UniProtKB/TrEMBL annotation:
Family that this chain belongs to: Belongs to the LysR transcriptional regulatory family.
Protein name: LysR family transcriptional regulator
PROSITE patterns: HTH_LYSR
Entry GO MF terms: DNA binding; DNA-binding transcription factor activity
GO annotation, cellular component aspect: cytosol
Keywords: DNA-binding, Transcription, Transcription regulation
HTH lysR-type domain location: 1-57
PANTHER family in UniProt: HTH-TYPE TRANSCRIPTIONAL REGULATOR YBHD (PTHR30419), HTH-TYPE TRANSCRIPTIONAL REGULATOR YTLI (PTHR30419:SF25)
Length: 301
């Protein structure tokens, strides 16, 4: 069964005779006859009574009542197949760290949907550790995050750098100082992100090289919550420069030896991604959005 056979059947119904249907479709009458015979053979029933030009059988009347639905469904399936062929339908699975969710992805996805309105996007918030694991498990097509501790299974394209900074209550003694050393930071309780935090490895390296250890080292697995924990205390929070501060909490002018952390596009290595052209379009839009927002200026000196 094909669309030509269905169209021939419906045209016979509309025109009343095989000959007028052939004329309407610009076919020879024998062509129309052959199409109907093939259709009858394929569905296994006789549609027209023999000896009459266009008198339907009982089965033919039932088939006629469904012909418009059949043709409409055929066209819908055909349009769907063409859209899939053009990479216009499907879904992309995207991950991002918190700062990317707030700065890059919202507008990038709006721009993407203007060009690919039938591609659905599934967006997941996470840290670098969880997002890289999701990519390995084929749950994400790409993520905007840091570089994983073991990058061998990924392709990581750095786009900008975020920076480790320190935050404290506005009345903290260190807030009155113009320059503060890391050693002086460690004289106070420290609140930092846990082992899955983007800066965890770099912070632990700094701590390992220091002769001084903080009196207490607290961990909070959500970096954005740390400013709330340092408020009205003597603790110093370790956050990123993209972390929103709250009222009465400000940054301390202190530097680490290695404060910069690369942020970029993390993708699986050597894995085919369906809708690859749509993926490449979205990746380019993300890069353009980073350029537009000025994040690309935050590069390691």
């Amino acid at each position: 069964m094909d669309l030509k056979e269905l169209t021939a059947f419906r045209t016979i119904l509309q025109e009343g005779t095989f000959s007028r249907a052939a004329e309407k479709l610009n076919y020879a009458q024998s062509t129309i006859t052959n199409q109907i015979q093939r259709l009858e053979k394929e569905i296994g029933v006789q549609l027209f009574k023999r000896g009459w030009d266009a008198e339907l059988t009982t089965a033919g009347r039932i088939f006629a009542s469904e012909i418009d639905k059949l043709i409409r469904h055929w066209n819908e399936v055909s349009d769907l197949a063409k859209a899939l062929q053009r990479d216009e339908i499907g879904s992309l699975r995207i991950g991002g760290i918190e700062s990317a969710m707030e700065t890059v992805l919202p507008n990038a996805l709006r721009l993407f949907h203007e060009q690919k309105p039938r591609i659905a996007c599934q967006v997941v918030l996470g840290n670098t550790a969880s997002l890289s694991q999701s990519i390995l498990q084929d749950e994400l097509d790409f993520a905007i995050c840091g570089e994983p501790s073991d990058p061998s299974s990924f392709y990581f394209e750095p786009l900008y750098h975020t920076k480790i900074v320190f935050a404290a209550d506005c009345n903290h003694p260190l807030r009155t100082r113009n320059e503060v050393s890391f050693r002086e930071i460690l004289e106070y309780p420290v609140i930092a992100g846990g082992p899955t935090c983007l800066y965890y490895l770099q912070l632990t390296k700094e701590l390992a090289r220091s002769e001084v250890v903080p009196p207490l080292l607290h961990t909070v697995n959500q970096t954005s919550a740390i400013p709330h924990f340092v408020k009205q205390t003597l603790s110093v929070g370790v956050i990123l420069d993209s972390t929103p501060l709250i009222q009465e909490v400000e940054t301390i002018d202190a530097e680490l030896n290695e404060p910069f952390i690369p942020i970029g596009l993390l993708q699986p290595r050597d894995r085919y991604v369906p809708h690859a052209s749509s993926l490449q379009l979205l990746l380019q839009i993300v890069k353009d959005e980073i350029e537009r927002t000025g994040l690309n200026l935050k590069k390691k000196p």
